[in-house]
Amino acid sequence: MSLKDKEKWDSKYDADEYITGKEPSGWLEENAGLLDGNGKALDIAGGEGRNSVFAASKGYEVTCLDISENGLRKAQTLAQEKNAKITTVLADLDNNSLKENEYDLVLCFNFLDRNLFSGIRQTLKSGGLLFYETFTLDYLKYSSFKKEWVLEANELLQAFSDFHILRYREVDENPKAFASLVAQKP
Ligand SMILES: C[S@@+](CC[C@H](N)C(=O)[O-])C[C@H]1O[C@@H](n2cnc3c(N)ncnc32)[C@H](O)[C@@H]1O
């Protein structure tokens, strides 16, 4: 499964153009006031690095983790372009666990692996922030996505219900539908 994912993403990223763009996710940028820039950040399935580079520009020591070599190569190129420093780690999240109590900030955008929820909870330090945004059930109206790739209504809220929820929204605006969360580990 993961080898197929790797091939799929390496092939998608095999072009000079940045398919997810060079600018950070709107959700990250709009809520950047919550980022104090102190400590370590992990960008889960960070792809071409747009959010990693933004977090690094805010002062975090950022690790961008992804299964795609092509994605991570482009992430480093973007970091150089924007005079930011990031560390890239090639890893398959299906077979790797996240270190406990390691990060002050975790970013996860457009990626869903429910088995990772517990790893995210553990890898964040107390007081650490989670930014999570990905597609919801409504997105199936506009795409050929599979049901297991999308969130149920309120699923992120429930998965991190013991965190302090700082921001949450669900958006359904053709052609996109997604949920966005910022939450702080107690
Ligand atoms: C839709 S992209 C999102 C990229 C980035 N988070 C963003 O929003 O710009 C999904 C990413 O998940 C990565 N990915 C898929 N399966 C993975 C796995 N098993 N382990 C690590 N990364 C994976 C892909 O390589 C791809 O970069």
Plain-language structure description:
The chain is an alpha/beta fold and 186 residues long. 26% of the residues lie in helices and 29% in strands. Strands 3-2-1-4-5-7-6 form a 7-stranded mixed sheet. The structure holds S-adenosylmethionine (SAM). Residues 2, 5, 9, 20, 45-47, 50, 66-68, 71, 92-94, 109-111 line the site of S-adenosylmethionine.
Secondary-structure map:
Layout lengths: L1 H11 L13 H5 L9 E5 L5 H8 L3 E6 L2 H13 L4 E5 L12 E7 L7 H7 E12 L19 H5 L4 E10 L2 E9 L2
Parallel strand pairs: 1-2, 1-4, 2-3, 4-5
Antiparallel strand pairs: 5-7, 6-7
Care to give the gist of this entry?
The chain is α/β, with parallel strands linked by helices and 186 residues long. Helix content is 26%, strand content 29%.
State the end-to-end distance. 35 Å
Number of helices: 6
Q: What general form does the structure show?
A: globular
Structural class: alpha/beta
CATH class: Alpha Beta
Tags for this model:
single chain; 186 residues; alpha/beta; Rossmann fold; seven-stranded mixed beta sheet; 6 helices; 7 strands; globular; binds S-adenosylmethionine
